[in-house]
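Two proteins were folded this term; both appear here.
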Amino acid sequence: MSTDGGTAPPAPRLAGIRSRWLDAAIAGLRDDPGVAGAALVGSLGAGRADDWSDIDLLVFVDDADLDEYAVPGRLPSGPGVLAASFDARHNGPRGTRAVSGQHLVDGLPLWVDWHIQPVSRAGRPADSVVVFDRRGFDRLPVTFSDLLSTGEPEPPTPKEPADLQIARLAMVPIAGKRIARRSPETARMIDFLGGPCQPGASWRRHLAELRRLLDGFAPLGLPASVAAGHAYLDLVADALG
């Protein structure tokens, strides 16, 4: 879920890709009778999104179908291809599921977080925008962030070292987004991805480090993700330059 609140320059190409993808995915959700409701959450739901914002979608399904909808690729997609997908259930409370993924659209990456909740505990967070609601769920007096942190978290699923590296590759553009926003969290995220933590470095230095990290992920055998990451960093450089 996007949490950066910095000011970023316009990126109309990214905003257009996000809009097209979201329109198609929402149409797919509406066509699925097993989805009881859906809402935009994160920055899009809270009304603080910018052109660089990712997509966070909250969907409600019958309790018995929870695990089915958490299978990567089960939920609808927009244009492009799903390059990488990750079980992210540990980001929510017990009894819920989450799936994160990198989609490649027109040569650029788009990060999507799906938050899947059973109808037995469904409710619309205060800072969400309802897409559709087939069962009349209550509006909750808490934010989506508060909802995610309620109670004990869902245990993470085991992941192989290669899976963790693929996740880091897919998150390089997220670090690039933080550069575009001049976020103070940029250095910390680069450190998480395997680069040096340099809080005082210039944005150009941070970009150069992310490019080096991208090239280091080449042995994973995902050249399209590496190329899309470089294309994204080119957009960051153009926007800030």
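Next, the second protein.
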Amino acid sequence: MDLEEQIQVLIKDAPADGITPQIVEAIAPVLSQLASQLQHREYYILQTLEQGWLLTTLSNRANPELEKNVIYAFPTLKDAADFDSQSASDPQIMALSVPVTHILFQMLAIDNVNSIVFFDTPGNLASGTEVRRGDIQKLVKARLQRVRPAPQSHPSNLPPDIA
């Protein structure tokens, strides 16, 4: 599925609440831009049977109190299975293919995740591309402000006795 098709699925599957599909459509260029910088159109995510994404907590080597939660996105099913033999043998954990734009979109909703690390080279889990949740949020916020600027107050709208 190409990026445009992925975006259309996101819009189609958005809750019909009158606003979410419009928001998805508005931020589609951000999702497409980020996704186009990655090598694959789909990645494998380790998930629980309840479809919760498997989080990995990383500690800073120099400062172990500094931690961040990441989700790993793998280019192949084999890479996902090889990553963590303990998770791979756990019947409660499975790797499912997820469209890249959907992964990026979900990052906006998962509060306890700091980043997703996308591994782009099959067989090489030593280096990946980190996409920080905060960076996605900033790009989305900037896009939404461009699409729908904040209402401005006009002096003619103010009551004459404002003082």
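The chain is about 40% helix and 20% strand. Strands lie at 42-48, 56-59, 67-74, 93-99, 115-118, 129-132. These notes refer to the second protein only.
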